[in-house]
Amino acid sequence: MAKKVFITGASGCVGHYLVESLLHQTDYELYLLVRNRAKLKTDLSIRSGVTVIEDNMSNIGAYKSLLATMNYVVSTAACWGGTEEVFQTNVHKTHELFDALDPEVCERAIYFSTASILDSHNQLLKEAGEIGTDYIRSKYDCLEYLESSPISKRLITVFPTLVFGGAADKPYSHISAGLKDIVKYVKYIRFVKGEGSFHYIHGSDIAQIITYLLTADQPKFCEHLPTRLVMGMPKSTVNGAIAEVCEFYQKRIGWQIDLSPTLINLIIKLFKIEVAEWDLFNVKLRHLTYDVVTPETFGLTSKYPRITNLFAEVGKS
Fold first, then answer.
1. Domains in the chain, please, with CATH?
2. CA atoms within a 13 Å half-sphere pointing along the CA-CB vector of 293
3. Three-state SS for 173?
4. CA-based angle 34:203:81, to the nearest 5?
């Protein structure tokens, strides 16, 4: 009998890559929760065993009986704006979703959080829970609950870093949607530099990892796997990224202005720019780095190992 997988947020950027991967690489029965079926662009007709549930997380309690039969759950759905809506969806209804799972039936429960709530050692960052945006604080609160919930022994939380992705048949991530605008300013970007580092990951590579997590031999697989997986390519520096992009677009780097935290704070004060306390904290932090996993961690091959791969994709679209 085919395994059952319940996926929330299937119509999002990452959701599209994941559904496409599971359709082609497994015979699992897929149950896709989407707010608007029209936004789900994946061709679901390629095989049977797919059920689309047009509803939202606010009504997740209606599927309690169904959820209790699931072998796997992948929760990617999230609300970004409106304090009440954010905490209702990202905390209370997400709790309700995972509480409905049967630990005797569910083999793996995968929860999508965000790397922003962790420090460089993949531990909870207290500032995220204190001064983070509504979205950040909701993710912080939800994780604290889930890691002590009845499903905790089946739980793997994944923390994407900067997410890229999107195509004609997939919605673009927030970052990829702005890449075309960045391309317009490459001729100016080459005149700045700054200390800082970060990780990124593409939606297709996220889908590779999640598909592996749902199909790997469970006893062998679970033995050494951390319950927190930060997904991202190896660390990139700000200056290295600028150099790589400029080389790709054949723009020579010469004299550069150093965008130090001191200069950034001066610009904020001079132009009276309103900046949230959380954003100021991240400007001061600068190095957003973690202990990461990549597709290669699981014996797979990343499709976007370099930053220029991301810009090459924009050039094709």
1. 4-167+200-232+290-302 (3.40.50.720), 175-197+236-285 (no CATH)
2. 24
3. coil
4. 50
Tokens of 15: 């959701």
Residue 187 has phi, psi (to 5 degrees) of -65, -20
Residues 6+ apart with CB under 8 A from 12: 76, 77, 171
Give φ, ψ of 136 to 5 degrees.
Answer: -60, -45
The pLDDT averaged over each successive group of 10 residues in the chain (317 residues) is 95 97 97 95 94 96 98 95 91 97 96 97 95 96 95 95 94 86 83 91 97 80 75 95 91 87 74 78 86 95 94 69
Treating both helix axes as pointing N-terminal to C-terminal, what angle do 261-270 and 277-285 enclose, rounded to 10 degrees? 150
Q: What is the DSSP letter of 234?
A: S
pTM: 0.93
Question: According to the model, what pLDDT value does residue 265 have?
Answer: 73
DSSP 105-140: T-SEEEEE--GGGB-TTSSB-HHHHHHS-HHHHHHH
Under 8 Å between Cβ of 230 and 165? no
Q: Which of 200, 114, 94 is nearest to 159 (CA)?
A: 114
- The pLDDT of residue 317 is 44
Strand partners, 293: 231
Across the beta sheet with 72-75, the strand order is 50-54, 29-34, 4-8, 72-75, 108-112, 155-160, 228-231, 292-293
Instruction: List, in sequence order, the alpha helices (H) in 59-192.
Output: 64-67, 83-87, 94-99, 126-131, 134-146, 174-177, 179-184, 186-189
Nearest to 59 by CA among 96, 101, 31: 96
Question: Residues 164, 115, 97, CA angle at the centre, nearest 5°?
Answer: 95
